Amino acid sequence: MQPQLQPTRAIRELTDELISQIAAGEVVERPASVVRELVDNALDAGATQINVRLLAGGVRLISVEDNGAGIPPNELPIALKRHATSKIVDLHELESVGTMGFRGEALAAIVSVSELSIFSRTADQDSATLLNARSGELQAAARSVGTTVEVKELFYSTPARRKFLKTDATELAHCVEAVRRHALTRPHVGFAIWHEGKLVEQWRAQNPGDAQETQIDRRLADVLGEDFLRDSVAVHYQSGNFTVYGRAGLPDTARSRGDQQFAYVNGRFIRDKVISHAARAAYEDVLHGHRQPVYALFIEVDPARVDVNVHPTKIEVRFRDGREVHQAVLHAIENALAAPRSAAAAALDSLGETDFAIGANAVKPPTTNVTPSANNWAQRDWQQANMPLAGDTARSLEILWQHKPSSGLAAQEDTREALKSFATPNTETQQQWPLGKAIAQLHGIYILAENAQGLVLVDMHAAHERIVYEQLKTQMDAQSLNSQPLLIPATFQATAHEIATAEHCADTLLALGLEISALSANSLAIRAVPIHLARGDVVALARSVLAELAQHEASTVLARARNELLATMACHSAVRANRHLTLDEMNALLRQMEVTERSDQCNHGRPTWRQLSLRELDALFLRGR
User: Fold this and answer.
1) Domain 483-556 CATH assignment equals 3.30.1370.100
2) CATH class for the region spanning 368-476+572-620
3) Nearest CA among 295, 307, 153 for reference residue 237
4) What b-and-e string marks burial along 425-454, b requiring 16 or more CB atoms within 10 Å of the CB?
5) What residue ranges of the chain are covered by domains with CATH 3.30.565.10?
6) Contact, 576 vs 412, CB < 8 A?
7) In the 3-class helix/strand/coil scheme, how is 60-103 assigned residue by residue?
8) pLDDT tens by residue, 471-493
9) Percent of the chain with pLDDT over 90
């Protein structure tokens, strides 16, 4: 994101009316708090290079040097006053903040707990000016254009607060993280961090002539590592007032903790429940267990549509339309994860790549919502390998709805007939298949296939489960779920908010197969539930759905409830383990995987296939050594 403001206005004290509208004052908790605020100011000054120097984890010294616009000598004393800034002048600007800082409190808060001095020089000055905050004296100094703020002996005046600080190594780690968060979203700015005279981290500014996405990708690789870039997919989505871009980690790279989740709004790092919920929902169908996804998302929106004046550290924001943000982030990640990665691997191989990797230059594979062209590898077999199964799945779905005892066997036999419809294509077509040509079945569980990269192993039940599941979701988009009336309605004590939600969202609840109505002023009665959930805890189900409806858009809740039921149905109608498949049937399954969205993971988030390259196979047998 390019700098939004080159300070040209004078620093001035805010009016009492404007001060009264500003959120709680700035609090310096640890050295990282100081680093964050000073880097904010450097970025707002238009800096393209920022150097941070630390001693004792930032307790003894924090020096932030930039090459920004600088501060005129007559404004330096004003800059240290509380509520003095050049970034806003009235309430209108406060409601549409486009800078990192805006309250004018950071320097005053830092001065109160440390020894602070400022060196600054503007472009029209012959020399820099030094201001000592303790004495208030101004004197000439040597420096190029820009500003250096030095903070010494943090908390010297409040020694009790020093006792709450951690070790120097821990405080240093927090300072590095504060700078890293800035570095991720500003590839055009170079950052360097020094500790005890040694270079700790350095991220060089990217070429300003490169495209924004290229700059972002390179900075993500520099900061988070090449593995992050290789194990993620590009995100780019625009809807109405929002643009969402960045990268989303592949489901296989999910972590036990959410420490690799970065979300930015107009260049500001934030922690927001709406965004984190949307991201988690986007991974819902492809993440295994309670793993946490990895992502770096950058959201651009009109500053007037987001309020950043809600938290002292400005790490939280409030959106004018939270649901609009939720949908934009949800669809952005879903679209990025939907395309099967097998086609991207084949495209890389055709460009001369020998190892399977998804990186910045990966070619986007075809998705199921685009009809393949006449000369595409998918066109020749799409009708045979995809459409017959869709029809048979519909018949299986009808059987499952009717609860026939033989539904599982019937679905499998229908699927078997569909897979036999595959016709063996010519050799040229085989060479273009991303998942290759089936060569064997292992223990009735795995399909072994040969492709240009080497060997592909496929969990046939998991793969077919995903295929059926995606087809069921498509077929059920415009339908409601069947419900079963309860002989004796289940009642429970409800809050006024739950009762209001039940009345307001009655149609949505019916579409989910739930009939919930008010029994009294403080209780609700559940009169019908989805057929497949009739034996579960219906009260817990009702409370969960009402809570979701109260917080998120009805369509999101509706889709989630449907998907949970359809996933169960797909699992029962998919090809079972220990069933013998012919080579034609195995090939038909592989072809469907190549054109089915999210086919790289089953409904429970487990991988459906793995690639072993020739290099990896050679290593197993020590070939070439």
Assistant:
1) yes
2) alpha beta
3) 295
4) beeeeeebbbbbbbeebeeebbbbbbbebb
5) 12-201
6) yes
7) CEEEEEECCCCCCHHHHHHHCCCCEECCCCCHHHHCCCCCCCCC
8) 877 766 656 667 889 999 999 99
9) 48
For the chain, the residue count is 625
pLDDT band per the 50, 70, 90 thresholds, residue 163: confident
Structure tokens belonging to residue 42: 């450097």
| Cβ–Cβ under 8 Å, residues 183 and 41 | no
The answer, yes or no, to whether residue 34 has pLDDT greater than 80, is yes
Asked whether the beta carbons of 312 and 109 are under 8 A apart, the reply is: no
Is the Cα dihedral 94, 14, 64, 72 positive or negative? positive
Q: For 156, list phi and psi in degrees, rounded to 5.
A: -65, -30
Query: How many Cα neighbours within 13 Å face the side chain of 34?
Result: 32
Helix axis angle, 554-573 relative to 538-551, nearest 10°?
140
pLDDT at 519: 92
Instruction: Look up residue 185 and give its two tokens.
Output: 């979203």
Distance separating alpha carbons of residues 90 and 18, to the nearest angstrom:
6
d(CA 84, CA 74): 13
Q: Which residues in the chain are classed under CATH 3.30.230.10?
A: 212-338
**The CATH number of the domain covering residues in 212-338:** 3.30.230.10
Q: Are 110 and 29 in contact (CB under 8 A)?
A: no
Kindly report the CA angle at 495 between 494 and 496, in degrees rounded to 5? 120
DSSP state of 314: S
DSSP count for the chain of H helices, then E strands: 23, 24
- Per the listing, tokens 């267990």 go with 289
The first and second tokens of residue 391, run together, are: 């029809």
Instruction: For strands 232-239 and 128-132, give the pairing.
Output: unpaired
CA distance 134 to 156: 13
DSSP-derived secondary structure for 226-251: HHHHHBEEEEEEEETTEEEEEEEE-G
- pLDDT band, residue 309 (cuts 50/70/90): confident
Within 468-571, strands assigned E span 483-493, 515-520, 523-530
